[in-house]
Amino acid sequence: METGKDGYERKMNLRSVFTAEQQRILQRYYENGMTNQSKNCFQLILQCAQETKLDFSVVRLFVVFSVVRDGALKCFHLVQAT
């Protein structure tokens, strides 16, 4: 662990590196409705985690970042169109 300026220890988060197969599965689930963290998507996230052999929290973060990325791209395209 690393110590920050305030003297508290910080736990470094490691980035997940997905295999090509995991990326394909994650994308398939995302395109088929795994697009938020609601109760409706809980089962999809769980199934995806089991199929990809990734931790539930990693798949959940993939969903969050995918939604943010797609929203940013839509805004970028709207700005470019005007």
Please characterize this protein's 3D structure:
Helix 2 crosses helix 3 (56-81). The chain is mainly α and 82 residues long. The protein has helices at 20-31, 39-52, 56-81, and strands at residues 2-3, 9-10.
Give the structure's gist in a few sentences.
The chain has about 80 residues and is mainly alpha-helical. Helices cover about 65% and strands about 5% of the residues. The protein has one domain (about 20-80): Arc Repressor Mutant, subunit A, CATH 1.10.10.60.
Number of strands: 2
Q: Main beta sheet, described? A: 2 strands, antiparallel
How would the global form be characterised?
A: globular
Question: What is the number of helical segments per DSSP (H or I, 4+ residues)?
Answer: 3
Structure characteristics:
single chain; 82 residues; mainly alpha; Arc Repressor Mutant, subunit A; two-stranded antiparallel sheet; 3 helices; 5% strand; globular
SSE diagram, text form:
Blueprint: E1 2-3, E2 9-10, H1 20-31, H2 39-52, H3 56-81
